[in-house]
Amino acid sequence: MRRLTVDVVVIGGGSTGAGVIRDVAMRGYRAVLVERADLGQGTTGRFHGLLHSGGRYVVSDPESARECAAENAILTRIQAGAIESTGGYFVTCPGDDPGFAEQFLAGAKASGVQAREVGVAEALRNEPRLNPGILRAIEVADGAVDGWQLVWGAANSAREYGAEILTYHQVTKIETANGQVRAVHCRDLKGDQDVQINCDFVLNCAGAWAGQIATMAGAHPVEVVAGRGIMIAMNHRLTNRVLNRLVYPTDGDILVPAHTVSIIGTTDVLAHDPDDLEIPSAEVQQLLDAGEVLIPGFRDTRALHAWAGVRPLIKDDRVGAADTRHMSRGMAVIDHTLRDDLEGMLTIGGGKLTTYRLMAEHIVDKMCRKRGETRPCRTAEEEVPKAGAGHSHRVTDRLAAREADRADDQLVCECELVSRKMFVDALVAQPQASFDDLRRQLRLGMGPCQGGFCTLRATGIAVSEGNLDAERATELLRLFLANRWIGLWPILHGQQVRQAALDSWIFQGTLDVEHLPNPEVAVTR
Amino acid sequence: MSTDQQRESGLIITPEGLAFAGHQLSRASLDACIKCTICETQCPVAAVTPLFSGPKFVGPQAERFRNGESVDHSLDYCSSCGTCTLVCPEGVQIAELNSQARAVMKAKKMPLRDRLIGQTTLMGKVMTPVAPIAQAALNNKPIRVAMEAMLGVHRDAPMPPPQSQSFEAWFRKRPRPTEPAPRGAVVFFHGCAGGYFEVETSKQSVEVLEHLGFEVLVPKQGCCGLAQQSNGLFGGATKSVLKLCDDLRSAGTDLTIISASGSCTGMLKHEAHEIMGVDDERLRDVGTRIRDIMEFLLDLHEAGELPTDFAQTELTVPYHAPCQLKSQGMGKPALEVLKLIPGLTVIDSNQACCGIAGTYGLKKEKYEVAQAVGQPLFDMVKATNSELALCDTETCRWQIEKSSGVRTEHPIWMIHHAYGLS
């Protein structure tokens, strides 16, 4: 058993947890973050990639709108490497109420969200694939954000301040004595050992799983209402700006140019188990229809992959429990002192990726107050490491990088232009990583062929670098492909079928990967 | 980009990319790529140099990383031969994507040379009156060294052979045919090279058509703009091609238009629309009426209307089908027609490209690449017949002739001979 002693344990390696560990570390606390899987493997990695301008909420939730606008500006400054400032349009599509634009502009003015109506002709000139029947267009400061780059940026910043990040550490028990948190017990899933972390404060940032964590500490159940949404990535950027429908928030109203793809999102359906999220075909069809409204011909473009994410909304008595779309997106910090007679634990829920830094500031402020300490938050002022020289990451960056090094380096993932050096560097930093762990940082296998060509190369390189034996290599290869298939099945139509057929012939027809020897214990991570 | 630059390139480039329908279509076609790599295995340039990252990389892969900016300058090593688009089993417009990305790149910085070598009509007009001097100058080593230094045109690159009389002057001054023309009128499109440099090919084409009983109309005509297009000057090229359509239409509606300039024909048939997005009724009209001359003869033959009283010709000749002829999707009509000449054995080079690709192989930095691309063809030509080779397009003939030392003629030359017209 490994034993550690710190001031604060942060539970959950999504954006909230990463923001919180950075904040507590910067305020001088000794801190550890524990996450049962990889960073950003839950909700943080399963969204549409939108960095909100606030426009989406100017009518429905002005407070969220205000927070988004402020945090958008801050993140663009401190985490430039994770963000592309694409700009966005809110457009009135045929059949939508043109009058909503007035409410929108008034709401934007009231909540300080930048918004400017532009001519339809200008919008169509700038985005030639946009529905030519749009009636109005409002320009906003939306952007695209890479959730994984965001959390790794925050986590690396926290490390520089002495924090420890423990991924693949599953919490097994939260030890309390006399109504005070004493320790968090974990299982190190990859190192196969128990870990005890003595502490006097736990910050529960487990998102949709926060209720389960709170219960481990003996608290009364925290009602986290899980709102499941699906998203679909289309093969290439159909627009270079974020497109939003200029309506009251609804399903399929956002199209985001995230890296090389366009992501349409999202639906919103109550989920009972955040670990069991389906991608129903009816919702896939619903999103493709919604895409067709924004971009005529959307259904004929190539869908690459679908996924489901789950919003961690705190139950709000004002709306019905099943209506997750209209629950407050606002953040809520639950103080367990009064509620559960438990000292040393706070739980946070709600919020959104765009406001993750502010959520962290709120919960850490609250912790400081409870500890009777004055330690000001500095996360808005200081850039995370490797944020770059003030410019955001752009879609052209990787092409420019490969232009510079392609003569000297091998291309591992052709679709997403991942070089061998990028892959090996990531492997060295995370020697126990699965290919999915590396994918989240590199975008390996996330392009058109969905791992058809890069998986073999990646496996071979990992073996030749001495990271894997043949048995684990086989298992990781099959696991990676199996995980790609989870997102392929729901959208398998049109041009992606040809790709899937070719990939299938490569792996099954030619290499017969499913009949390679099986190890005694299946590799799952 | 300044407004002036935009006007010259003819592109509307917003921060979001090329704002014209042709690009939207090419870009949409990348969705069909399944990364099968067939284009990479067939690309003649990627096979000989690591300077070019290959059609799959530059086309469907890199296009996903472009938002109207072309940061991968090595794409300029694409010769625009179009082999990739031709061989793609999924219908991706690979070469078109590359040409468009190059136009965007060059819109920011257009070398003087690339501006000049697109002016093919101007070159002909300047050289024809002073043909002997021009010829001497183009064969003069110090002048060519100076041209290379100043203009970036390689000192050893093949140059058009200046002629003392233009095709148009010949056509105007020659005695009018006295024979009746029972098959009616056709329009002849000679192209810049056929007007000023490959004058013999144009004459022979007209004579063959007249021999077959056609009245040949030659309206005053300008350039198709292909050289400007392949150098990324879409604005000038669009203007040229539409002006040419007006010229050719002025000779009469519904007439078949015939050309012996294989690459210019391709520009009118599909490139102006697919690469530059020219969407104009005049282009559609001309594009559907125009026929390559060997294609036209094959059509006649298939309709049982081509006299086959060809003279016995005991000869074995190599034939090379140019890239821009192949990309018209009509097979290799010259091979079929030449088969009708008794005694003649024509051997298909089965090589992808001679390397010149219009103006590509003239350029200082591309010359060696172009020579390497063409080497297997040059070897094949020399081994097959050291005195005569056949090829349908002008710049390819100059390249083959210069690099292999074998005289290279248009297939119509052989037909002209076999009909006893020479």
> For the terminal residues of chain A, how far apart are their CA atoms?
21 Å
Annotated CATH topology of the domain at 306-418 in chain B:
Rossmann fold
**Total beta strands of chain A:** 24
Biggest β-sheet description of chain A: 9 strands, mixed
Tell me the CATH topology of the domain at 79-144 and 225-314 in chain A: D-Amino Acid Oxidase, Chain A, domain 2
Structural class of chain B: alpha/beta
Largest binding interface between chains: A-B, 38 and 36 residues
What is the CA-atom radius of gyration of chain A, in angstroms?
23 Å
Unreliable segments of chain A (pLDDT under 50, ≥5 consecutive)?
316-321
Low-confidence stretches of chain B: none
Total helical segments of chain A: 15
Can you identify the CATH class of the domain at 79-144 and 225-314 in chain A? Alpha Beta
Give the amount of beta strand of chain A, in percent: 15-25%
Descriptive notes:
The complex is a heterodimer of chains A (525) and B (422). By secondary structure, chain A is an alpha+beta fold. Among the domains of chain A are: 79-144 and 225-314, D-Amino Acid Oxidase, Chain A, domain 2 (2-Layer Sandwich); 397-515, no CATH class. Chain A contains 15 helices and 24 strands. In chain A, strands 6, 7, 8, 15, 16, 17, 18, 19 and 20 form a nine-stranded mixed sheet that branches. In chain A, strands 10-3-2-14-22-21 form a six-stranded mixed sheet, sandwiched between helices. In chain A, strands 1-13-12-11 form a four-stranded mixed sheet, with no helix packed on it. Chain B is an alpha/beta fold. Chain B contains 23 helices and ten strands. Chain B has helices spanning 3-9, 21-29, 38-42, 55-63, 83-87, 94-108, 112-116, 120-127, 131-138, 141-151, 167-173, 191-196, 199-211, 226-230, 234-249, 262-274, 281-289, 293-302, 323-326, 333-338, 367-384, 394-404, 411-418, and strands at residues 13-14, 17-18, 185-189, 215-217, 257-259, 290-292, 315-320, 344-348, 389-391, 408-409. Chain B has a four-stranded parallel sheet with strand order 4-3-5-6, with helices on both faces. In chain B, strands 8-7-9-10 form a four-stranded parallel sheet. In chain B, helix 2 crosses helix 6 (94-108), helix 4 packs across helix 6 and helix 16 (262-274) packs antiparallel against helix 17. Classes of the chains: A alpha+beta (525), B alpha/beta (422). Chain A binds chain B through residues 125-129, 235-237, 239-241, 260, 297, 301-302, 394-396, 398-400, 402-403, 406-407, 411, 414-415, 417, 447-449, 452-453, 495, 498-499, 502, and chain B through 12, 14-17, 19, 21, 24, 27-28, 30-36, 50, 53, 56-57, 60-69, 71-74, 90.
